[in-house]
Design brief:
This protein is of the alpha+beta class. The chain contains 14 helices and twelve strands.
Length: 364
């Protein structure tokens, strides 16, 4: 579940985002004549700025170990207007070929195509619903820098993130440069890494190399990551107690079996059956119980998991809680259950192998 939630989170964002460092606040000193009477720090207003020599930055980032893709973009605020409807949006100007290596938006299209020619845009499912537009319809885009243009909707996507689906508008990099008065510039560089859990370390390395601010997905989603880690720990604790309960159940069944079959065990011991053979019989019984239980449990678990997966789906038809089933999972489950069965059988098997034949026959 942890891996699935992380995959879902990273489906709508890059692993690392590079930006121009924030402008430092300036000290303000209020004075009467030459005497300072107050001192305060005021945050500098953050304006949209282009990354200096961004092609070199991309080339340097792509050479770094662990980075698999890089995409330049312009990200800015604005409004989408159609008739009387007006919605706040986040405009992403991008190079399609590079962006698809970061987020494959084509897999999440629910209508139209991913086309970003001059004046074409692709928007989120919720934004399209709020504006009442479909593929082929036109709307007006107004940027926070005063630029505006009439565009055509070529595609509608759903990433399963309401904030993204309600605000994102994707357009070409050149079109966004015109909207935000940044000819030839980009405001962010988005990176994808091979190991998502190494994103924070790679972000520090990239920041040290480029001098830019590097935010990894682990920093941006710190609360989510902490919650998922706690969920993973809880899952491990639950699995531990389930295994303990299963072991106690198998052990109790075998102990009852030893008590019920004590007379037969005593007869076997009286006719010369070695204690190690009796020990082996009960160990095999424990292993068979574990193996049979794992086979039945795995089959029922797979059926119920798929039924649960189909209960809730996104507007695009994608399951909201995907269940990943594969041979490694079934193999691990069978091996674990069989091992638990064998371990649980040790104590009853030792007790059966040490029964005194005369006592067992007399009291059986």
């Amino acid at each position: 579940m942890l891996a699935q939630q992380i995959d879902k989170t990273l489906g709508s964002q890059p692993h690392i985002t590079l930006r121009v460092p924030r402008e430092e606040p300036r000290p303000l000193v209020a004075s009467a004549s030459t005497t300072a009477i107050a001192h305060s720090m005021q945050e500098s207003p953050q304006r949209l700025r282009s990354i200096d020599q961004w092609p070199r930055v991309i080339a340097a980032a792509e050479r770094m170990e662990g980075v698999t893709a890089a995409s330049p973009s312009i990200t800015g605020a604005g409004f989408a207007v159609r008739a009387d409807a007006k919605s706040p949006i986040v405009v992403h100007g991008l190079e399609p070929e590079r962006f698809l290596r970061i987020i494959d938006i084509r897999r999440h299209l629910i209508a139209g195509h991913f086309e970003l020619e001059a004046g074409d845009v692709v928007i989120g499912f919720k934004l399209a619903k709020d504006l009442g537009v479909g593929v082929g319809d036109k709307l007006r885009v107004e940027s926070s820098e005063g630029g505006d243009d009439l565009v055509t909707v070529r595609g509608i996507f759903s990433l399963g993130n309401e904030g993204v689906d309600a605000t994102w508008l994707l357009t070409s990099l050149r079109h966004a440069q015109a909207l935000y008065a940044l000819p030839g510039g980009v405001t962010t560089i988005e990176l994808k890494v091979a190991d998502v859990f190494a994103a924070e370390r790679i972000a520090r390395d990239v920041a040290g190399t480029t001098g830019l601010r590097a935010d990894s997905w682990m920093t941006v989603n710190a609360d989510l990551l902490a919650g998922l880690s706690a969920q993973s720990s809880s899952k491990g604790l639950i699995q531990f107690f389930v295994v303990v309960a299963a072991a106690l159940g198998i052990a109790s069944v075998l102990i009852v079996s030893v008590v019920q079959k004590s007379r037969e065990i005593g007869i076997l011991r009286a006719v010369g059956t070695p204690s190690r053979r009796i020990l082996l019989v009960f160990l095999i019984q424990g292993g068979v119980l574990g193996l049979a239980g794992s086979a039945v449990g795995s089959g029922l678990g797979a059926v119920f998991a798929k039924l649960f997966e189909n209960l809730v789906r996104d507007p695009s038809g994608v399951p909201r809680f995907p269940v990943q089933l594969g041979l490694p999972l079934f193999g691990f489950s069978v091996a674990l259950a069989t091992g638990v069965g064998l371990v649980s059988a040790v104590i009853p098997a030792r007790r059966a192998s040490r029964l005194d034949p005369a006592t067992a026959i007399r009291n059986g």
